[in-house]
Amino acid sequence: MSSVVKNVVLVHGAFADGSSWSKVIPILQQMGYNAVAVQNPMTSLSDEVSFTKRIIALQDGPVILVGHSWGGAVITQAGDDPKVAGLVYVTAYAPEVGQSANDASSPFGWTEGQKQIRLDSDKFATVTSQGMLERIAEGLPMADRKLAFAVQGQSFGPMFDEKLTVAAWKDKPTWALISTRDQMLPPEMQQLAAEKMGARVTTLSTCHMSILEVPEVVARVIDEAAKTALAK
Predict the structure, then answer these.
(1) Which end of the chain lies in a sparser environment, N or C, as judged by fewer CB atoms within 10 Å?
(2) Rounded Cα gap, residues 34 and 137, in angstroms
(3) Can you tell me the distance from the alpha carbon of 194 to that of 173, in angstroms, rounded to the nearest whole number?
């Protein structure tokens, strides 16, 4: 029986959709993995977890569960699924039990990217053009930045205050990619979370959208997780 996990489930962040994994997925496929992105509704933490677990259930064997940005909160809660063999946090939140995503980042102050979030009267959040082009995706070619802005969708603001009841990283082997030039999530938060989780760390000098800026590096870490998670 192979000790390599062949299934990779990718969870996108807020103000994004599954297309944010469009550069990582082909690389993983070329490596021989079954890689699928969850299309999360951005309506509540519980909805995100339910969507993610349904995709996990469709996989025929163990899974490496990967989260970018807000997706890190989702995989922290959803990662207790018995099919999940390992967790990969990419420029992501990694809250503790009883913490929300906002709880995890608030000690570090508002980032320049977070300052560009706007709520409508129904508490749905979007990011301004300036926020996406200059504070979130600034490491990408302008055409890619504009595409990220166009597909961002809306995210329900109160979900960032929902407290997690599970921290799957306590029981699963964990990897973390930290973006030192991130203007959306505090790099210090990412670093401290990685240390707390005992994660194997890769440090990147990228913008928040590391999954689009350096997809080869992201895929390489996922590959390492897939090859070693079951042995840990």
Answers:
(1) N
(2) 27
(3) 12
pTM to 2 decimals?
0.98
Q: What is the pLDDT of residues 177-230, one digit of tens each?
A: 999 999 999 999 999 999 999 999 999 999 999 999 999 999 999 999 999 999
Q: In the structure encoding, which two tokens stand for residue 135, read together?
A: 């504070």
What is the pLDDT of the chain when averaged over all its residues? 97
57, amino acid identity: A
Q: Report the percentage of the chain scoring pLDDT > 70.
A: 99
Q: 3-state SS of the chain?
A: CCCCCCEEEEECCCCCCHHHHCCHHHHHHHCCCEEEEECCCCCCHHHHHHHHHHHHHCCCCCEEEEEEECHHHHHHHHCCCCCEEEEEEEEECCCCCCCCHHHHHHHHCCCCCHHHEEECCCCEEEECHHHHHHHHCCCCCHHHHHHHHHCCCCEEHHHHHCCCCCCHHHCCCEEEEEECCCCCCCHHHHHHHHHHHCCEEEEECCCCCHHHHCHHHHHHHHHHHHHHHHHC
Nearest to 56 by CA among 114, 1, 11, 121: 11
In this prediction, residues 84-104 reach a mean pLDDT of: 98
What tokens appear for 58 in the block? 């469709």
32-44 average pLDDT score: 97
